[in-house]
Write a structure and sequence with these properties.
253 residues; Rossmann fold; alpha/beta
């Protein structure tokens, strides 16, 4: 590919604008509070009780705590949902940070009942029943179920509507934001985190579902905020697992 001189000038000018904007943004970021949305460690997928961390899930959370300590993050608040996997993740994370943590709870950060919406879909469409027990087959089914749920086409009694889910995550984020707190850790689940990002970024339901299905265990999504604005700084990062020894420990369930 041949690039002419006008294109080079345009690229250089664009880069200078980006760098200038980034320098201004960095100064602004230093004055803003941060929320770290953290998905729980690997749970017990395929077991009778999913809501328990696996041995690897506890290690993931411990390693994340070590990483946050190493980069100098001192949490002003730590907030979880009420699920066991949230609380267990918080405990292992605090152990890794070598902190005695005061942990708050807000049930708005709980995951939606994915079993309920999947069963509701299968009652309507039994032909969608997976032919294998592999995670890939389940996540494909979950995508269909979440799409139907968000379109209000699931029938029968459900624990909550899509709108109910949106509203409680919104309330949980309001509870979590505190401009006096510098670093706020929120330990939640993929669906609730993705819904919070949907509301922040004003994205479509289908995109929110995509985010949910790619959210990794103990991943970090970082939001900067003050009383006037909020913006997403990073999504789904796992710096504590990005080493040759730990890359095989990146999980999604």
């Amino acid at each position: 590919m041949i690039i002419n001189i006008n294109q080079i000038h345009f690229i250089n000018s664009s880069l200078l604008n980006i760098l200038s904007t980034r320098q201004t943004q960095t100064k602004t970021d230093e004055l803003m509070s941060k929320i770290f949305l953290i998905r729980h460690g690997q749970a017990s997928f395929g077991k009778q009780n999913y809501d328990q961390l696996s041995e690897l899930g506890s290690k993931q959370a411990y390693w994340l705590g070590q990483h946050l300590k190493d980069i100098g993050i001192q949490p002003s608040r730590i907030i979880t949902g009420s699920l066991n996997r949230h609380k267990q993740t918080a405990a292992s994370l605090c152990e890794g940070m070598k902190l005695n943590c005061d942990i708050e709870e807000h049930i708005g950060w709980n995951e939606f009942d994915f079993h309920a919406i999947v069963y509701a879909l299968l009652r309507k469409h039994p032909e969608f029943t997976p032919k294998t027990n592999q995670p890939k087959a389940f996540f494909s089914l979950l995508r269909k179920a979440m799409t139907a749920w968000s379109d209000n086409t699931l029938t029968g009694s459900l624990p909550e509507s899509w709108s109910d889910f949106e509203n409680r995550v919104y309330e949980a984020m309001l509870f979590s934001k505190n401009k006096e707190a510098k670093n706020i850790l929120v330990i939640s689940s993929g669906g609730a985190i993705s819904m919070a990002l949907k509301q922040l970024l004003n994205i479509e339901n289908s995109t929110m579902i995509d985010l949910n299905l790619q959210t990794r265990n103990t991943s970090l999504s970082e939001i900067y905020f003050n009383e006037n604005q909020s913006h997403l700084c990073s999504f789904n990062a796992v710096p504590h697992l990005e080493t040759a020894e730990r890359r095989t420990h990146i999980t999604y369930a």
